[in-house]
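REVIEWER CHECKLIST
Item 1: Sequence provided? yes
Item 2: Single chain? yes
Item 3: Sequence as submitted:
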Amino acid sequence: MATKTKPAGASDGHRTITVCNWKPLNSGSLRGFLVLTIPPGLKIHNCQLLEVGGRRWIGLPARRFLMADGKVHYEPIIEFTDRKACWQFERTALEVVEAYLKARGEW
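Item 4: Structure as written out by the authors:
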């Protein structure tokens, strides 16, 4: 069950990411949903904490839709312009999420 807590934050250079509204859900690779906030105040809802084989990562929100053949596909709602920016964001966001969950005693 989600509870209101003080957001955790981490800095990567001049940028700070905070996490709040953790909603645990242990289903397959999914460990839960959360909200990430990045300066100057952009909130990214429906981020996912995912884990497979000891590897964790942050999934950004995507729109689910069905193709004509009945297969499920996902289209990104937001994305980074290059791999380096994405990797830096995911690395910092994951550090923040892990610190947040550790402070709550959930990790």
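Item 5: Key structural point noted by reviewer: The first strand starts at residue 8 and ends at 12.
Item 6: Recommendation: ____
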